[in-house]
Structure formats: structure tokens, C-alpha cells
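Changelog note: in this version the structure field was regenerated for every chain. One regenerated record is shown below for reference.
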Amino acid sequence: MAKKEHLNLVFIGHVDSGKSTTVGRILYETGAISEQVLNKLKDEAAKVGKATFEFAFVMDALKEERERGVTIDIAHREFETPKYYCTIIDAPGHRDFVKNMITGASQADAAVLQVSVKDGVQPQTKEHAFLAKVLGISQIAVNMNKMDAIAYKKEEYDKVRAEVEKLLKSVGYKTESVHFVPCSGYVGDNLTKKSPNMPWYTGPTLLEVIDTFKIPPKPVDKPLRLPIQDVFTITGHGTVPVGRVESGKLKPNELVVVMPSGAKGEVKKIEMHHQELTEALPGDNVGFNLKGVDKKDIKRGDVLGPQSNPPKVAEEFTAQIVVLNHPTAISVGYTPVFHIHTAQFAGRITELVEKKDPKTGQTAQAKPDFIKTGDIAVVKIQPLKPVVIEKFSDFPALGRFALRDMGQTVAAGVVLEVKPKAM
């Protein structure tokens, strides 16, 4: 049995659009969770007075697990389609969503935007669609959920579909290639099998649509970039960093450099899931022995690269950001915490270059005095400590970030240009 290709999928959309129920149902119908587990959840749901929530509990049981710290094992959220092996990034509310999207280990390859046909386009539907676009998710499908709530009427579906199409066009998606699927997560219409309740719909099921997504090419031809997640000292093995290869290849005996410290070393043994590898490719989470680098010279947030092409340490960088959630306004001098790949740093906004029109992407205002929630802007940022940052167009995983302040995600963005520090 050849191993299926791996697709990272994020479910986005307004809070009550039935995302957890849909995802739970798909996991159940594809055999990723068993009948016993579902029955247990059904009882639990009934106990807390939430009958009909058993599918949602599939995902929500995991949230509790996550809160208890069992984040290492993402096996729970995986299911198989005929073509792919999918990991679901569940996007609960938008705060977690952004954090998951950007600092989460998995970067989404595609998104399913969930819209309740009962409620139509909601504020968060807009936000999520827009965010997906700005964060570089080019493939999107729409699950028109809760068809059972409108008695499966085609005219209701058509009305909401037109609204969603307009929204997707306005954020820059080409709607000709977007699939809209009328579903019911609760009843199970058109998720993994054709529904008898909507003879007027002849298109694919949601699962079939997921199989039309393309896996982005693995950037093996680019230079090695490996953000460090953790570093261990293991007796007899010395310094053992752990991280995920984002681009290029990691090979034994390779001469590498750790940035920003500039420490140089040689890669010895590479392991993934306790098996030795002769090379690690993009997407692989590996541990490896690093000879010649002292534990104090390497830490979480650092990035490993070849000595011939070291990762860039930024003096300053220019980025396009979306302000998601700021109580007042952001102006020059604002210094939030930035989360990028595995690093966190305080950064100062040194210039507001321009504000963009979200509908056209054109300049709406040059050098604005401030930007506020809902604005898209190009800004310059100066990190207050040395940190590796790369252009989104060169290394996507090292070029998308979140700004956090006051315990929440204030903005998200992608890096357009980097002014490297003179080393």
C-alpha cells in the first residue's frame, strides 16, 4: 500500500456554522473514529443537555485534551480520503485560529469555508475568508451547511451562495474554480456520500471536493531552513535539536549554521519517530545530533541553514498585515509580540507605509497616521532582538506571522521584504 500524500486542511467560518459537527461527522464516516466512541459522546452530549452535539464533541473532546497538554499527538485529527491522508486544523474561534494557522506546526494547504445557509454570511465569515487569502491559502471550497434547517430548498441555497460568491470575489478568490457543496453536518448530507434529500444538486460530495485540492510542491530545491522547536542534551549524543524541515534537505555530515547566533556545526545522525533517516525532507519533524554546537548557542526560535546560504537575520522587515482585533488604533512606535515560525520577539512598528483597499489591493492611503481593526496595511517593523525572518515568497513558513498583545492576536501578516543585519 503506497503511502498517500498528506494534505493540511483548515475548517474556517463563523462560530455557529457547525464546523465541529461537520468535522466530527467526516471523521466518523471515514472510519477515523469508531461507533463506540461516538456512542459514548452521544451519551455525554445528552447528559449535558446538548443532544445533537455528539459529532461536535469529537473535536471538542480534543480541545480539552489539547488544554491538558497532549498536543504532541495529532493523530486524532487525521482522516483519509480516497486520494489523501488529511490532517484537520480545527479553527475554533478566531483567536485560536490565527495562532493555529501561523504558529501551529501545520500550515494549511487548503481551506473549507463553512457557511450556515440558515444565517448567511456573518462578520466572521468575512474575516476568515479574508485571512485565508492574506495568509497565502489559495485553495478554498465552501461547505453550505445546515441545509436540513431550510428544508433543502434550492432557492434559499442559491441566495446564500450568491452572497458567498460575492464575498470570495471581493477578497480576491477566483470563484469559477471554487466548489460550493450543500451539506448537513448533522444529518450527513453530501459530506462523504451523495444525499437523497437534494436531487437538484448533481455536484461532488465534500470529500470528493477535498480530493480536488492540490498538494503544494515540496520546496526541496530551495536552501535548507529548519526552525528549532526544542533542544535536548542527551548523554552520549551531545546536543540534539528538534524541528521541522521547511525547505531543502537535511543530510548527515552536512555543515550547517545556526542563526542568529552564527554557531557552526556538523549534522550527525538524523531520526524521525525513532527511525534513522539518510535525509529529511520538507514537512519532516526530526531530531538530529549536532556536533560542534554548544547547547547555549542554540534554542527554540533559531533557524538552521547551510553554511553556504545562512538564514537571514533581520535588521528590519516590511510586511503586509491585517489588523484583526485592536481596541483602539496602531501607530508608529507600537511594540507588540510577534510570533513567526517557532520564534517570538518584541518588534517595533517604525513606519506605516500605506493602507490598502481590501477589495482591489490598491493603495487606499499613503503614510496613514494610524491603522485600526479591519485595515490592511504595509508596515515596517524592527525586531528588538536578533531573529531569523525570510520573505514569504521565498520561504512561506518563515514569512508569515501573528502579532499578539493583551493576550490576543491583534494582527496577522506576511513578510514582503527583509533588510538583513550586517553580520
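Spot check on this record: Residues 61 and 420 are 44 Å apart (CA to CA). The chain has three domains: 5-210, 226-306, 314-420.
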